[in-house]
Amino acid sequence: MSSDSLPPLPQNRIVLGCGQVAVDFLATVASFPNPDDKIRSTSLKVQGGGNAGNASTCAARLGLNPRLISKVSNDSHGKGILEELEADGVDTSFFIVSEKGNSSFTYVIVDSQTKTRTCIHTPGYPPLIPEELSQSSLLSALDGVNMVYFDGRHHETALVVAKEAARKNIPILVEAEREREGLDDLLDFATYAICSAKFPQAWTEAPSFSSALISMLLRLPKLKFVIVTLGEEGCIMLERSVNGGSDAEEMDVQCLLESLKLIKDDSKTIPTCISSVETKLSADGIGTITGKLFVGTAEKIPPSELVDTTGAGDAFIGAVLYGMPPEKMLPFAAQVAATGCRAPRLVSFL
């Protein structure tokens, strides 16, 4: 992917992230060790990481102007994180730098045989607290912003930022990777949500994946769409209708999802998007939502080209921050995520 292939960039699009940054130690091994084994890595790379850090880096490399609210310590890891983010074009002027404690870091074991990665995370200390972000800094951080993104970390500070963003009518994207302290409060402010495969059912306790999406939109009236990422299976998106669509036909959401999956052309290697017409989507025991259902496919990566899936979901979010209609956004985000999987370093493609 080159800069020439990107969609037209909205002029001066500024996005603000709030969440985790870290240093990642990516050790590639021939195969994951058994307990008590001693093995050697085939390669080792040290790079910046963390969900918000990765997504912001991706956004910057796509040509956006990202700002980031987070915290590091004044240690070697923290200095490296700031230097790398700044070199990539991420505005770190709203970071809190602690003179004590430690910055976040993660050991990532990349298994060459199974193409999987195992993460062992050490949180930063002391954590970011709301009192460390002054009102003047908060207002400056939000000035001119087109969208705010939260990865669910630093939840108390994130909630302060979310409330001010909502007051200014700035769209809010919340990543729901898994249930975390304070995530429910953030989701109440969400305009958009991007979830891991297991989150919707775990959060809603709905009996099926598709009914969980209906439940999320019913529980979160401000939510315009929810996307669930499914790795090599692509993604599913449910978008709420703006106009209500009172005359739309009613369909069972699971039946509609299955019918869209049947339309997929599995012979295509590049990402595609299939969408329903606007309809009333129902789920037994849950309720009804008027909207559109989308099925996005993932790019098919030959095994010989698949290097590391670390950060693929963060790259997907970075591409969503670009801001496009769903039919273009889902294939674009899938392509960006796939490109990152072809290299051991996140989104090394521009």
TrEMBL record:
UniProt-listed SUPFAM superfamilies = Ribokinase-like
Q: Which UniProt keywords apply?
A: Kinase, Transferase
Question: Carbohydrate kinase PfkB domain spans which residues?
Answer: 19-240, 268-338
Task: Please name the GO terms that the record assigns under molecular function.
Answer: kinase activity
- Keyword Transmembrane helix assigned to the entry: answer is no
Q: Which InterPro entries match?
A: Carboh/pur_kinase_PfkB_CS (IPR002173), Ketohexokinase-related (IPR052562), PfkB_dom (IPR011611), Ribo/fructo_kinase (IPR002139), Ribokinase-like (IPR029056)
Output the Pfam families linked to this UniProt entry: PfkB
CDD domains named among the record's database cross-references:
ribokinase_group_B
Give the family this protein belongs to, as stated in its UniProt record: Belongs to the carbohydrate kinase PfkB family.
Query: What name does UniProt use for this protein?
Result: Carbohydrate kinase PfkB domain-containing protein
Specify the taxonomic lineage: Eukaryota, Viridiplantae, Streptophyta, Embryophyta, Tracheophyta
